[in-house]
Amino acid sequence: MAVKKTITIKNMTGLHARPAGMFCQLAQKFRSDVSIIRDDDPSVRINGKRILSVLTGKLLCGTGITIICDGEDEQEAAQSLYSFIENLRE
To answer: Where in the cell is it found (predicted)?
Structure first.
C-alpha cells in the first residue's frame, strides 16, 4: 500500500535545477516508486526519480504537492523526501 505525504513548497525558488536534482538523487536511493502530484492538477503524475519530469512539473514556491511512495521501503522514502522539501532553503 502506497504512502502519501502532502506538503507545500516553501523554498522561494521552488524546485529549480539544483534542488530538483538533489530531490531525484535522494529518490533514486530508494527501491520504491516515487511520484509527485500537484494539488492544483491531480491528473498529472510526476516521476520523482527523473530530473526532466521534476523540472517540467512547475513545482514553484507555494505549490501544494503530494509525494507518493510505493514499494518495499515506502515509509522511509516518503519521510526522507518530505523532510527534504520541508527543510529546503536556498
So the answer is: Cytoplasm
Residues 62-88: tens digit of each pLDDT:
999 999 999 999 999 999 999 999 999
Catalytic residue status for 16: yes
d(CA 40, CA 78): 20
Q: Assign 76 to helix, strand or coil.
A: helix
Count structural domains, the chain. 1
The letter for the amino acid at 65 is I
In whole angstroms, what is the distance from residue 73 CA to residue 78 CA? Answer: 9
The Cα–Cα gap between 83 and 10 comes to: 12
pLDDT tens readout for residues 4-23: 999 999 999 999 999 999 99
6, amino acid identity: T
- pTM reported for the whole predicted model: 0.96
CATH code (residue 29): 3.30.1340.10
